[in-house]
Amino acid sequence: MIGGLRALGWHVEALPLGDPHADRDAKARALSLLRSVPHDTPLVIDGLAFGILPDEAEALSRERAIIALVHHPLALETGLDAAQQAALRDSETRSLKAARAVIVSSPATAEELVRDFGVARSKITVVVPGTDRAPLAAPRAHDGIVRLVSVGSLVPRKGHDVLIKALAALRALPWRLDIAGGDRLDPGHANLLRDMVATEGLGGRVTLRGALSAADLDALYAQADVFVLATRYEGYGMAFAEATVRGLPIVATGAGAVAQTIAPGTGLLYDPFDTEGFGDGLRRMIGDADLRARCAAASRDAAHGFPDWEATAALFAKAVENATPKIPADEDAS
Description:
By secondary structure, the chain is α/β, with parallel strands linked by helices. It contains 15 helices and 12 strands. Strand 6, helix 8 and strand 7 form a beta-alpha-beta unit.
């Protein structure tokens, strides 16, 4: 997004807010940094920080316009207990109330903010992320192995544990799985996944590749037959869009915006709690070359429906401009 805005002639500066989760001092430093931004400069705060800064957001809102960028509500992250969910829901509700405008990545997230967080619909603009155009997954010599690829950080919400367990029950079928995703956000969960692979005896069939460069990720997609992801929730689902533009068939679970991002006919989608159905979908896709071909064709057709970053940046810029108060000419001159 930053690159797209700069291509439009915007000067964009990313402010390092540190870790506002840390303590009161960290939040005070974040507020001080945000206050250093001139009032005639649009201020967009990423929801990952904004949602846990309600006091700071309220203080800033009395001084200037704030624009919140929400990927998905923090309270919907997997693994939170009831108390944590309630605290985050209250915190984010207060923060969003202080925002002049809210930019979200999908219609599903917009509906959730209106329904569950009390955000006025008039404050929300949906700006779907851009998707870089990419070569289609390349034809390959058929050696009988169906190559599966999954992309997502090694955190509970991405459901890699569900995927590994489902594939363990299909060990009689010819498949290989590569998972691309960093392990720094939740090292404990990443270790759990490594232990699962070892315990299930899948070390020769499942590879955790870690965080990949763009070039290495392109190469991984290029040799894949099917994209698989048992995510529990997505505010958009960038990996699904990337798989679609590469013409890959999809087997997935997911709530939130997943059903909006995965185009009809491109794959098999299941409720995140339907692990049995997801496992059956994997079995069908691995075992049925005709099904893979039909879904791949649908993905190639659907790829044209995703915006590129140039179009997305233009919509984002318009949303920011609409939410930024205009400085009167005489005041600006003074």
